[in-house]
Predict the 3D structure of the following.
Amino acid sequence: MLKIQAKEIIGGDLSATTKMPCKSFNLPAWECKTGSKLSKVKGSSCYDCYAKKGNYTRFPSVKKAQYKRLGQLFNPAWVDAMVSLIESEVKRINEPIFRWHDAGDIQSINHLKNIVSVANKTPGVKHWIPTQENKMVNDFIKAGGVVPDNLIIRVSASMVNGKPPKNAKYTSTVHTTKKVIGYECPAYKQDAQCLECRACWDTKIKNVSYKQH
């Protein structure tokens, strides 16, 4: 599939952030299922959401592009288009990693099924999804869904300084204190960049804790 065709199918190009070593795929944070509720709860990890500020809102074209991608999620060719773009990105950066949702979150079990299909079709790529949709993930698994080994779904703690969800294989937390659970993301010491760190994609790391910013 040509890159221009793949972009048309998914609703635009992959997203790029200054922090990440690779491009990502994002959706409008306003459409998060659980996150939109948590964003109204003071002290939650979604309160004052970064994906509803900065470039995400400063430029109308960014938000418009996110909603276009949202509308294309269930295009029959979406999986193959994502595979094509991810393979192109991996080749560009010469590293087999991909991050899902630098903004937004899983929309439904069918959406998760499509992401799993993409991971299955790119077995040499390490995929990482941060999510608040713990129930959605568990419902997918209870229904017989299998999360491939190259896909890390890190379920996020709902509250800042809260404990990681118990019924998730991989998790993440947000901290403001010196008490860190598991591995502390070093980005806040590195000009908000991953640099050489790949902890979020590492199956040996159960919980990644991010310093609130």
In short: The mean pLDDT is 92. The two ends are 39 Å apart (CA to CA).
